Amino acid sequence: MRERFVTQILLMTAGLIIWAAHLGFVYGLNALACTFDFARLELFGMALTTLTIGVATLIALGAELLVLSFAVAGLGAMGFGGQEQYRFMGPITATLAGLSAVAVLWQGLPVLVVPVCAGAGG
Amino acid sequence: MTQTESRTKGNRLEEHLPNSTPRPEGELKELERVWRPPSGWNYITVVNNTYIGVFYVGAAFLFFILAGILALVMRTQLAVPENDLIGQDLYNQLFTMHGTIMMFLFAVPAVEAMGVYLLPNMQAARDLPFPRLSAYAFWAYFVGGLVFFSSIFFGLSPKGGWFMYPPLTSYEFSPGINADFWLLGIGFIEISAIAGAIEIIVGVLRTRAPGQSLDKLPIYAWTMLIFAGMIVFAFPAVILATALLELERAFHWPFFVAEKGGSPLLWQHLFWFFGHPEVYIIFLPAAGFVSMIIPTVAQTPLVAYRLVVVALLATGFFSFGLWVHHMFTTGLPQLSLSFFSAASMAVSIPSGIQVFAWIATLAAGRIQLNTPALFVLGFMFTFVLGGLTGVMVAMVPFDWQVHDTYFVVAHFHYVLFGGMVFPLFAAFYYWIPTASARPLSERLGRWVFGLIFIGFNTAFFPMHITGLVGMPRRVYTYPAELGWDTLNMISTAGAFMIASGVLLFVVDLIRNFRPFTNKSPGNVWNAGTLEWLPSGNYQTRSIPIVTSREPLWDQPNLPEDVEAGRYFLPGAPTGGRETIVTSPVDARPQYVVQMPGPSWPTVLAAVFTAGCFLGLTVKLVVPAIISGLIAIVMVIWWLWETDPGPTAEEIDIGGGIRLPTYVTGPMSHSWWAMVVLILVGGTLFTTLIFSYFFLWTVNPGAWPPDGVELPSLGWSALAAGLYASSSGVIWLASALLKRRERKGPWWGLRLLLMAAVPLMAGGLAVDFNGHWQTGLRPEEHSYGAVVYTVMSVQGVYVATLTLMAFYTVARSLAGMLDGVHRVTFDNTMLFWHYMTAQGLVGLAIIHFFPRLIG
Ligand code: HEM
């Protein structure tokens, strides 16, 4: 049985990688929106930035759930190159995806309550 | 057990063990000879991790004491109001040096040094895979650190605070060389930390005891793996930041000067992208100590091992989400700040998981209250308190209240001292029996703990209150009528109590610490992991098969069988230093790596590298260049012996397993190290590109600024073509070399390498010329500065690769390179392709992006 170290590690930390991608995206978008003043653009009566961040959050959450279910449904055993490694890495994958989903949610929620470009100094 | 019973048990085990006893005569002698450190003056060329590790920890501890003395001077000054013992200028130097030394010269090196010492022992490897690299990292750090420290005696110390915010630290407000000391010193020490991290990553993943698969890896090794991974992704940011600020100071390239399109916020982003993970970089290995000590103290395996691994991985990631956290009061959009408040919350979950796993383990076993246990309990108390104030600081409005007051000083000392110094002392008391002929004294140990613990809380608890009643940090004195005197006096008394505890520890060391004797008091705490196997300079006599997380608890007779040589590789079959390289997940033996021994050039390379940086700092450019050149020659000399090729066909390590002594390609440890190095380079480049885009958002309408033309696309296409074709030539050389197998050295390879060099250099020259012709200069605007920096970084790669190409040709001329014996070539090749990729990305961004938005 061949080891596929890189695949296995990426799979195991997929939840965290999705979290990082989400953070980078929402932070970058927010910074750009405020710098270039497109934060005021609206679509269907909602700020475009808010909408985009909302959608990105939903996509990220979906991806986390996908990883989670992949790891939980023994499907993972294939991805991990065998039952033995799966026994160790499968639960880690699932827990990390769950944890990251919470973190993504935390990151996404402020959009609903905080105006996009209000200065922090108040 | 009767004698017959024990014999039959022994026989039964013997059938499963890879090697039979008695071992041939002279085998042990040979093993001892091979691993013996040199004597006399040559002693300082030693590379064994058990020696370098101890030196390294010792040096870090020395810096702890030095920075502690600076703290005592500050505390003496603050003991009474309106004290005129020292003035503002010296006080500024003191806190900057104290903070800088504690963070860069003590905390990170100390935990890295413990890794160098402990990891091979815990994994039953004979040494880390690149022993000379650890020796180099140690010497560079030691020499560089001492020079950096002595700047305080000449009034040359930096005084901009440990995070050195520009514009205060740039040429306008900090002329003189004080800030340069910080920038070059720290940049240099970070490079040494990265060298150590590469070593640790490859060591943890590739040199383990057979059978020690990822699920049986000691938690400490996990923490060090994640620690090193975090260094790879965090430290390049601070190296870039220091490089940019140094470029600004030395050549007036305006990255942080607002009038010229720069922004001081860029520094803060780069610095804190590193700075916040830094806290966790320090904390993770310390948590690793705790996760090793607690099971031993409670005599039961760690509860929820898998969950702790989850917590470590999550901490590693989430902590990077915190960088903007430090800039709460700088006026970023509120929403951005909420993201980071969220990340602060997220990172507290994994810390909580670990604390619960520790408590559950303690509850599951029967605690022995020895000195390591006391320090661990002290750690848990302090760290939890620091965590609570951390949550307070993470709440944005509260942060505005206490920002820059003593509340913050109290908070981060609870986190840093609590989170790292207590575990470190626990680790000293716990592991010293593996390194010394005698353990430290339990009686003195209790006193040491008591003094440090009570002293610490006496010193730092009152600071919360001092802060809440309004005393700002970084002031050298305060007026009497504000009512801050009593609190400050108590803090000072506490500080001296800590000092007496540390002093007592030194007394204990002097009385009992006897390293390098090959004698040991044995497994004094009845621990379960491999570092407690009987060992010598060669580590363990034979390398065990591991079937459990606590092999010493679960595998009967393991120490005896290991010591008798019944496990793998009981001798030194190649006649030199070697260890088993295993696969990264399952730890299956793959090959036997031959490792280099003691060497002068390694030590000299470190000394001259430090000399080069020092020369640059004090603006002695010619000596700096000479020193740098000598360093390069030394590195080449040291490397020359490190790619020995297949000296023996295959080696029998026991149990019918025959392993090759040389492999190339993705399986080889050297390939792995190169890939990690490329990750470092990639991170550095990514942060540079981030800076490019960040500066663009500062100058949205003017990118490039008015009056600046972009070079025509033809130039950039030509440059791209040249880079790509140089890589193509290297690729061709690799393919042809492979076909030749062992047909000996080959002139065609030399020709191709020599053809690739001008192509690569041509790419750079064409790109540079394109910008130069348009009249773009780096000093006028941040745009030019960042464009020239991208090219300069590329220039460093081009220069390095030119050197590597010549080196590879020299290896070929010396008959040390062919289709099989080709690790040197492979390294050059990997690095080359990376250079090309980076060059192409840089070209694409610099030439297309402004056109895209313009
Ligand atoms: C040995 C006991 C220690 C004492 C008595 C002590 C005392 C102090 C004092 C008096 C200050 C200056 C406060 C101010 O004026 O703003 C300070 C700052 C600082 N300390 Fe400590 N400290 C100790 C240990 C440590 C340790 C172990 C670390 C880190 C691992 C550390 C990291 C820092 C940092 C980063 C600063 C901030 C420097 C700056 O403002 O730029 N300290 N400490």
Automatic annotation (TrEMBL), chain A:
Keywords: Membrane, Transmembrane, Transmembrane helix. It comes from the Bacteria. The chain crosses the membrane at residues 9-33, 53-76, 88-106. This is Uncharacterized protein. It comes from Chelativorans intermedius.
UniProtKB/TrEMBL annotation, chain B:
It catalyses: 4 Fe(II)-[cytochrome c] + O2 + 8 H(+)(in) = 4 Fe(III)-[cytochrome c] + 2 H2O + 4 H(+)(out). InterPro entries: Cyt_c_oxase-like_su1_dom, Cyt_c_oxase-like_su1_sf, Cyt_C_Oxase_1, Cyt_c_Oxase_su1_BS, Cyt_c_oxidase-like_su3, Cyt_c_oxidase_su1_bac, Cyt_c_oxidase_su3-like_sf, Cyt_c_oxidase_su3_a-hlx. Its EC number is 7.1.1.9. Residues 29-559 form the Cytochrome oxidase subunit I profile domain. Residues 1-29 are annotated as: Disordered. It holds the Pfam family COX1. Residues 585-851 form the Heme-copper oxidase subunit III family profile domain. It is a multi-pass membrane protein. Keywords: Cell membrane, Copper, Electron transport, Heme, Iron, Membrane, Metal-binding, Respiratory chain, Translocase, Transmembrane, Transmembrane helix, Transport. Residues 1-17 have a biased composition (Basic and acidic residues). The chain crosses the membrane at residues 51-74, 94-118, 138-156, 181-205, 217-245, 279-298, 305-325, 337-361, 373-398, 410-432, 444-469, 489-510, 598-616, 622-640, 671-695, 715-737, 749-766, 786-809, 830-849. Pathway: Energy metabolism; oxidative phosphorylation. It is an enzyme of class 7 (translocase). The keyword Transferase does not apply. It is found in: Cell membrane. Its main location: membrane. The keyword Lipoprotein does not apply. Belongs to the heme-copper respiratory oxidase family. This is cytochrome-c oxidase. It comes from Chelativorans intermedius.
